[in-house]
Write a structure and sequence with these properties.
The protein has 355 residues and is of the alpha+beta class. Helix content is 27%, strand content 18%. The chain has nine helices and twelve strands. It starts with 13 loop residues before the first helix and ends with a helix. The mean pLDDT is 94. The protein binds N-oxalylglycine and nickel (II) ion (NI).
């Protein structure tokens, strides 16, 4: 598609702005007042559920309890944290370290991986090609891990020297973890254990990593690191910064700040599971705030359906009382919207309603 050939304006990396020690942020990053992060109300906020996946390897009762906890979390939050997930803490430490080191490289080194709006692969800052859009205060590196046919390690950072191998090992572990979560979600929806995976198109799933880097911001009350959006894909497992908070999840009219549990992944339902589950589970909007004192790094791992596979509500979840809410679409078609328009809350999945 022509409009996705190039960025509409030269890309400015937020890190370069932040490093130039500005005391005010450029107008391009200033959100309208209604979209700015509200200051903390000072009231105790609820927390997204924390689920111990260790229960899956124990007896039938523990396994059942874990599946019920996932079902509750998906219905009430669309988000939960998982602990005892089996991904090695050493690997988690290493992957954070390689990405911190990557973002510390000189700009020219990183620019060698500059991305374009056709595939988004590489080092970038904006999402969406709308000219004159208000931008988010964040840079990122985006890469494909699956399917193998589009994975291209030459597009992954060659520096630091352990980056490619560490990312591959991390990706392999995350694919395994997401495979487990898919089984749990499938059962929790009342489906057979492998049915959700089959509805994703079987083994030819997609997997991508978006490493988000949110530099320090002199006026964090005027902007966001990432605007409200639901994740377009299937399932997201986020490795949040181990020190700095920033992710907020929508709950009614409020934004709840997630308190990451040490060693946990933050899991959330994407739009494709909302569609497949006929909205039994909904993708939930989230956003990221930034702060003046500390930079923040997060790794969002996206587990997606096979990209050319039609995604529509699963037969068993369609009843006379609950007719199909969405028309079939492929993920390739679906994600064009985000690539063109950037983060737009939940407008895309809402626009897919069956007529
Ligand atoms: C994302 C995302 C949250 C974060 O990359 O889609 O929601 O905390 N990231 O960076
Ligand atoms: Ni997201």
């Amino acid at each position: 598609m022509d409009c996705l050939q190039e960025w509409p304006e030269p890309v400015v990396h937020v890190q370069a702005l932040s490093d130039s020690a500005l005391t005010t942020i450029p107008d391009l990053y200033i959100k309208p007042p209604s979209e700015r992060p509200s200051s903390d109300k000072g009231v105790a906020t609820p927390h997204i559920p924390v689920i111990d996946l260790g229960g899956l390897a124990e007896g039938a009762a523990e396994c059942r309890a874990t599946i019920c906890a996932v079902a509750d979390a998906c219905c009430s939050w669309g988000f939960f944290q998982v602990v005892n997930h089996g991904v090695s803490p050493d690997l988690v430490r290493k992957v954070r370290e390689v990405w911190r080191d990557f973002f510390r490289l000189p700009m020219a080194e990183k620019q060698a991986y500059a991305n374009n709006p056709r595939t988004y692969e590489g080092y970038g800052s904006r999402v969406g090609v709308e000219k004159g859009a208000i931008l988010d205060w964040g840079d990122y590196f985006y890469l494909h891990l699956l399917p193998e046919s589009i994975k291209n390690q030459d597009k992954w950072p060659a520096l630091p020297s352990s980056c490619r191998q560490t990312v591959q090992e991390y990706g392999d572990e995350m694919v395994k973890l997401c495979g487990t979560l898919m089984k749990v979600l499938s059962i929790s929806l009342g489906l057979d254990v492998d049915q959700l995976q089959a509805a994703f198109g079987g083994d030819d799933v997609g997997a991508c990593l978006r490493v988000n880097y949110y530099p320090r911001c002199p006026q964090p009350e005027l902007t966001l690191g990432l605007s409200p959006h639901s994740d377009p894909g299937g399932l997201t497992a986020l490795l949040a910064d181990d020190c700095v908070k920033g992710l907020q999840v929508r709950r009614g009219d409020d934004w709840v700040t997630v308190q990451p549990v040490a060693g946990a992944f933050i899991v959330n339902i994407g739009d494709q599971i909302q569609i497949l589950s006929n909205a039994k589970y909904k993708s939930v909007e989230h956003r990221v705030t930034v702060n003046a004192a500390q930079e923040r790094l997060s790794l969002a791992f996206f587990y997606n359906p096979r990209s050319d596979w039609p995604i529509a509500p699963v037969g068993q979840l369609v009843t006379p009382q609950r007719p199909p809410l969405y028309q079939a679409t492929t993920f390739d078609e679906y994600r064009m919207h985000v690539r063109k328009n950037g983060p737009t809350g939940k407008t895309q999945v809402e626009s897919l309603k069956a007529i």
